[in-house]
């Protein structure tokens, strides 16, 4: 085989896996680590790769474990290329061994997450508003990285249409003060409406929430990723993906959002930053056609 070309995609830990894959297949041929142990007059020898995993043989071929599998299958290739690396909101949160306090701070080196220069094109779409404790982002330092309003699954997908409920967004054993503050903040930030959040009494106080979700906002980053891929001649059927299977044409608001995001996502336009409703209301409240203030409000 003359040339083997990869287009690599991933979301969340899948994005970390995609980056690790590009790192792995970029390895040159190297000697395996040899360990010899003697016990009761007998000698045992084992070999391991650069990650400490056991392997057969004293040498690993180029292209890492992919090269090893190709070698085992008797497949020879002349050139290996990574044409496109398309990833969403890289979250590694990797620990080789189980631990109640895992160390995620060494993931970049441990997984080779920045060793992705082999990819001819790198596109990374990330979430502006993810806030969970173990969902730290690992940025890229090559290629194009764009920040989208929303949380992890808003950008990478994985939501389903339907009602989403939380029995305990937050709890309190004493007073409801902090729960009321959090409730007001979540409403002000437009994550919930007034009627969707309640503080329930019981053995302790709990802030409960319920809201209806639709997954179609995540189609917008998908469309842009497909457009970048199409530019690099990845064999997508772009029209089928954007106009049929994952269409947002029936949602006027999402179409406006996509148009607003396009100059930034696909070019050098200004980032579309999440704004609290109160900020916009305070700045533009009462504006009406044909005032310039109303035109500015529409842009926001």
Summarize the structure.
With 300 residues, this protein is an alpha/beta fold. Helices cover 31% and strands 25% of the residues. Helix 3 (107-111) links the parallel strand 7 and strand 8.
Q: Top keywords for this entry?
A:
alpha/beta, 3-stranded antiparallel sheet, flat, 300 residues
- Give the overall pLDDT as a whole number: 88
- Judged by helices, strands and strand pairing, the structural class is alpha/beta
| Number of DSSP strand runs | 12
Helix content: 25-40%
What general outline do the C-alpha atoms trace?
flat
The overall number of domains is 4
Low-confidence stretches: none
Distance between the termini: 53 Å
Radius of gyration from CA coordinates: 25 Å
- SSE pattern: EHEEEEEHEHEEHEHEEHHHHH
Strand content: 15-25%
Biggest sheet overview: 4 strands, parallel
Spatial strand arrangement across the major sheet: 1-7-8-9
Helical region count?
Answer: 10
């Amino acid at each position: 085989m003359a040339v083997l070309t990869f287009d690599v995609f991933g979301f969340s830990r899948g994005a970390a896996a995609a980056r690790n894959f590009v790192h792995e297949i970029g390895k040159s041929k190297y000697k395996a680590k040899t360990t010899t142990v003697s016990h009761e007059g007998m000698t045992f020898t084992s070999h391991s790769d650069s990650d400490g995993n056991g392997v057969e043989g004293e040498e690993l071929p180029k292209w890492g474990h992919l090269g090893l599998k190709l070698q085992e299958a008797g497949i020879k290739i002349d050139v290996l290329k990574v044409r496109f690396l398309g990833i969403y909101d890289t979250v590694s949160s990797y620990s080789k061994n189980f631990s109640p306090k895992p160390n995620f701070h060494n993931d970049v080196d441990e997984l080779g997450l920045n060793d992705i220069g082999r990819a001819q094109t790198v596109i990374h779409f990330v979430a502006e508003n993810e806030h969970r404790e173990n969902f730290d982002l690992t940025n890229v330092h090559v290629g194009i990285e764009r920040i989208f309003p929303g949380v992890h699954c808003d950008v990478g997908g994985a939501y389903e249409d339907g009602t989403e409920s939380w029995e305990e967004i937050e709890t309190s054993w004493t007073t409801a003060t902090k729960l009321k503050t959090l409730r007001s903040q979540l409403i002000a930030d437009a994550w919930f409406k007034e009627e969707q959040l309640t503080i329930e009494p019981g053995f302790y106080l709990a802030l409960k929430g319920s809201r209806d979700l639709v997954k179609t906002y995540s189609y917008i980053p998908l469309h842009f990723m497909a457009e970048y891929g199409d530019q690099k001649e990845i064999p997508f059927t772009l029209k089928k993906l954007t106009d049929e299977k994952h269409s947002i044409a029936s949602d006027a608001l999402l179409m406006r959002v996509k148009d607003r995001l396009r100059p930034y996502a696909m070019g050098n336009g200004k980032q579309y930053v999440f704004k609290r409703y109160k900020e916009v209301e305070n700045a533009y409240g009462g504006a009406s056609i044909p005032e310039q203030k109303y035109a500015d409000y529409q842009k926001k």
